[in-house]
Amino acid sequence: MTYLFFLGQTSDLCWEELKTVLARFALPEPDRLEERFAALDSEELIDVEQLQHVLGGTYKIAQIHSITPHLEFSEVESTVKNIITELQPKRFALAEHGRDHLPVVEAREIKRQLNNAGTKVSYHETPRTGANAAVLKHNKSLTELHVIQLEQSLLFATTLTWQDPDAWRIRDVEKPMRDRKRGMLSSKVSRMMLNLGIGTHQPQDAIVLDPFCGMGTILIEAVDLGVLSVLGNDASPEAIVSTTKNLAWWSEESSNEFQHSLTVKKSENLEPRDFPTQPTCIVTEPFLGKLTPTPEQIPGVIRGLEKMYKGTVRSFAKLLPEGGRVVMILPAYEGKKGKTITVTKALDEFAAQGFEQLSGPFRGGRPSAVTQREIYVFEKKAPRG
User: Fold this and answer.
1) Strand ranges across the sheet with 142-149
2) Judging by DSSP bridges, how do beta strands 259-264 and 229-234 pair with one another?
3) Can you name the residues that pair with 93 across neighbouring β-strands?
4) What does the pLDDT look like over 103-141, one tens digit per residue?
5) Above 70 in pLDDT, residue 204?
6) Residue 182: which pLDDT band, with cuts at 50, 70 and 90?
7) What is the separation of C-alpha 4 from the centre of its chain, rounded to a whole number of angstroms?
8) Measuring CA to CA, which residue among 270, 259, 250 is closest to residue 190?
9) pLDDT given at position 165
10) CATH among 3.40.50.10320, 3.30.2320.30, 3.40.50.150, 2.40.30.10 for 171-380
């Protein structure tokens, strides 16, 4: 079977996560078809429901029924009719991607022709880009068919799974303790970062540390992934109180069993003795400074952050074992002539402390934001010599 993955807005980050998770599942490496689509051929059936739960950046998984060269419009309609006739759904919806410059496939006319030919099916109208997850969740009998125009080919696929919008909403907005200034990292981005940090290991074998845990979003996502032990730290006692309450809430809300340990300390002063067990990976969004600095303020903001980040990286080197990963958001700003300004000295400190940059930076926030969030993945290497 050939599977199709629909990647989210931060497509490069979504792609990196997808490759990592598929390797964890011992599945073949996928092919990136275009910016927002990836495909995977597998001789064995994949548990797509489990895979969909694990992934933060893939919003739908579909089955590809046909890959053809470019077709005439009548041939596209004929292929859609043939697939619906074969599948015999009660209801269908039709989505078109990359075809804004082409005529719309007349789904109602296809339904009429099928009914006249003896194939009884109803049509559910959706936007041309397809049904959202809420519509699919509450219309279980609906089959969503996709016509996807790529540069060199045309794909026909049907949706198998989709992200559960209610599950994400619960973790994002129903936590008892919320603070927009401290809790701006979304659950989906947290999930993607965690998957990159855990890598090809199983979540139950990971011990995740967030040294800037804030409201505990990353730790909750780690637990939901199946991590059994999470560690948190924050320089603010109030943040640790909030994280404690949110973890207790999630323990009651979910069926996950886990252990946690939280400390109050500046990140640059953390030592191995601060935690009951050694973390296997660090996943975090640190303090990013003033989020809307003026161009004149940016150099000063960077100098202040670099001092803190350099000390923090030194503590990471003490905390992690060889092979341990750091997935960390660092700020970036657009300078003159479109040049990106970032915390260069912090990146240099990672190298100085024996970390190799595996991937990144990946943009993880709104493109229009003054302070851009860039996600890096580092791995601690063995000491030289």
Assistant:
1) 31-34, 37-41, 2-7, 58-68, 154-162, 142-149, 91-97, 122-123
2) parallel
3) 144
4) 999 999 999 999 999 889 999 999 999 999 999 999 989
5) yes
6) low
7) 16
8) 250
9) 93
10) 3.40.50.150
First to last CA, the chain: 48
60 φ/ψ sector (left φ>0, alpha ψ -120 to 50, else beta): beta
pLDDT in the model for residue 95 = 97
CA atoms within 13 A on the CB side of 75: 8
How far apart (Å, rounded) are the C-alpha atoms in residues 286 and 312?
10
Residues 6+ apart with CB under 8 A from 359: 16, 196, 376, 377
Q: Is 139 left (phi over 0), alpha (psi -120 to 50) or beta?
A: beta
Tell me the domain boundaries of the chain: 2-163, 171-380
- 305, two tokens: 């952050």
Q: Phi-psi category of 374—alpha, beta or left, where left has phi over 0 and alpha has psi -120 to 50?
A: beta
* CA-based nearest residue to 222, from 271, 260, 169, 266: 260
Residues composing the chain: 385
What's the CA gap between 145 and 147, in Å, rounded?
7
DSSP 177: S
Q: Which amino acid appears at position 336 of this protein?
A: K
By the 8 A CB rule, do 97 and 123 touch?
A: no
The mean pLDDT of 146-161, rounded to a whole number, is 95
- CATH code linked to domain 2-163: 3.30.2130.30
